[in-house]
Amino acid sequence: MSLRVNKARRLAAPAAAAAAAAVVTMVVNPTLGASASPSHETGKKPVAKNVIFINGDGMGAAARQAARLHLAGLGGQLGMDKLPVSGQLTTDPDDPKAVITDSAAAATAWATGEKTYNGAISVDVDGNPLATLGQQAKAAGKATGLVTTAQVTDASPAAFFSNTANRSAQDEIARQYIEVSKPDVILGGGEDWWLPAGNAGAFKDQPAEDPSEASKGTKGNLIQQAQKAGYTYVSDAGQLDRAKGGKLLGLFANEEMFQQRAEGQGDVYSPVVGLSTMTSKALSTLDKNKKGFFLMVEEEGVDEFAHSNNGTRVLQSMQELEKAVAVARAYVATHPDTLLVVTGDHETGGLAVEEADSSDESGDGISAEDGPFTIHGSDKSFYIDWTTSGHTGVDVPVTAEGPLSDRFTGKHANTYVHEVLRQALTSGR
To answer: Does residue 36 fall inside a structural domain?
Structure first.
């Protein structure tokens, strides 16, 4: 007997999967240290000083199940599923033309507490700007940051730190980061949007892996502007490691930090800097603020590879997300005044975990099954099946730990995230 999840491509062998699982559980940043005493020692329930919000873009329950089987095995648990509180979020937008959300509308619901139309970045249905969690955290005196394997100006992080009627205006979003919202840490891809057309930066225009990528900004040289505003700019792992304190801007790719394709068609997931490394650096930087911080972390590969029905790369992206969750959990273990939340903005691909059954193939072309994929610690396997190359409207799981985490029990609209996070970031300040 073997379980299924889709396409003809085996990921890692069981030994490699075991090593990956070990890495997931062992990633710790020794420079973070300990701050507050555990609540059981003081007898007091800690106040939420910090918030770490982690988005597996496109990650529904089935993606978490597929990753659990592949990385942890039939009796195992992902780190994100070990968080003590769990619930569900609905994801529908307020859009006259759609019932299924995109990332912009979903992230706007989180960041502002209001539903809006697809493509909108923290503006209401009439295009009016809304107050964001990034702004509210800054007003409370906290440090703020964003980490993503997408462009740093992509829809999900943008909703927390900018306002625009069109998610495609990524150079305008970058400008607002530097001139208006001023996150203390900005780490991810998307250098193309920070430089004028014809002015390549650390990453050359028209690279061989994707000739369509090239600098395209219309707001001047925003990297230079950021440096003048006090940001240290880095573009590779060594520079990131050497950066010390202060404001930090790191751009590690022309666009996303991977190449989104179907299997065997130029698909590459090999970021210049891993999500867990960026998360660790962001935490050690933001941790210096005595009033606390708000950090948004995102793994974009789950969504983008699911759009291509690429099960191999979806599982690889989930593995990298797990490493980032391990870093966050290690921080929370020594900082119990931190609220940690892990969820997804929507589900992508209509992913289903299936038995291996040759009579059950339900699609061809882009919707053909992927697999077999190994189940950790077992001689069994599974396949991934797909129903779409787009988003779906299923609920997404949310798991949480720390002060106010108990409020995520049950089923809520995605706008509820803003209610809880805003209370955590602004109460008692």
So the answer is: no
What is the mean predicted confidence (pLDDT) over 345-355?
96
Nearest by Cα to 192 from 209, 171, 162, 178:
171
- Do 117 and 125 form a contact (C-beta atoms < 8 A)? yes
pLDDT at 170: 97
Could you give the CA distance from residue 309 to residue 359 in angstroms, rounded to a whole number? Answer: 20
* Helix pair 311-334, 275-286: axis angle to 10 deg: 20
The pLDDT, as a whole number, for residue 38 is 40
* Distance from C-alpha of 321 to C-alpha of 323, rounded to nearest angstrom: 5
The pair of three-digit structure tokens given for residue 106, joined into one six-digit string: 């979903």
- Give the H or E element holding residue 139: helix 133-139
CA 395 to chain centre: 17
pLDDT value, residue 29: 43
Would you say 187 and 248 are in contact if contact means Cβ atoms under 8 Å apart? Answer: yes
> Residue by residue, what is the 3-state secondary structure of 268-292?
ECCCCCCHHHHHHHHHHHHCCCCCC
Q: What is the sign of the dihedral through the CA atoms of 159, 47, 285 and 321?
A: negative
Q: Find the mean pLDDT for residues 202-213.
A: 89
Pick from 26, 40, 82, 49: which is nearest to 400 by CA? Answer: 82
Residue 144 phi/psi, 5° resolution?
Answer: -135, 155
Count of structural domains, the chain:
1
Tokens of 75: 């009796």
Provide the mean pLDDT of the chain: 89
The CATH code of the domain that includes 200 is 3.40.720.10
Q: Is residue 359 domain-resident? A: yes
In which element (H, E) is residue 293 found? strand 293-299
Burial of 375 (C-beta count, 10 Å sphere; 0-12/13-18/19+):
buried
Using DSSP's 3-state secondary structure scheme, residue 400 falls into strand
Q: Give the distance from CA 203 to its chain's centroid.
A: 23
Model pLDDT for residues 121-134, shown as the tens digit of each residue: 999 999 999 999 99
In a domain, 35, yes or no: no
The DSSP letter of residue 45 is P
Q: Is residue 336 part of a domain?
A: yes
Q: Is 318 left (phi over 0), alpha (psi -120 to 50) or beta?
A: alpha
Nearest-angstrom CA–CA distance, 41 and 37: 7
Distance CA 80, CA 107 (A): 20
For 168, the domain range is: 3-28+45-426
Task: Give the integer Cα–Cα distance in Å for 243 and 31.
Answer: 14
